[in-house]
Specification:
mainly alpha; 63% helix; 100 residues; Transposase; nucleic acid binding; globular; 2 domains; RNaseH_sf
Length: 100
């Protein structure tokens, strides 16, 4: 059985082998929403879009989330990914503290 933990370990092994500048798990900040595009941009977008109206069921909410994901503008995702190096530098400059 493939678990998420096993997949994460496989992904990290692949990154260590194929991405020379990969940051190891020991180097990752323990709680880093300032550095995770899902946390600092994507989840908020999905929530705003999916929850524009109340849902009467989990199924309805899941459908709205999937629709919002599918309709998310590619340029928005690109901007979030492109902003990551600057956010990383800001976190380094803040010595691991929170950034705005």
């Amino acid at each position: 059985m493939v678990t998420l933990w096993n997949k994460a370990k496989e992904t990290q092994a692949w990154l260590r082998k194929n991405v020379p500048d990969f940051i190891t798990i020991k180097e990752w900040p323990p709680y880093s929403p300032d550095l995770n595009p899902l946390d600092y941009a994507i989840w908020g977008y999905l929530e705003a879009k999916a929850c524009e109206k109340p849902h009467e069921s989990i199924k309805s909410l899941k459908k709205a989330i999937k629709k919002a994901w599918d309709e998310m503008p590619d340029d928005m995702v690109k901007r979030m990914v492109d902003s990551w190096p600057g956010r990383l530098q800001a976190c380094i400059d803040a010595e691991g503290g929170y950034i705005e």
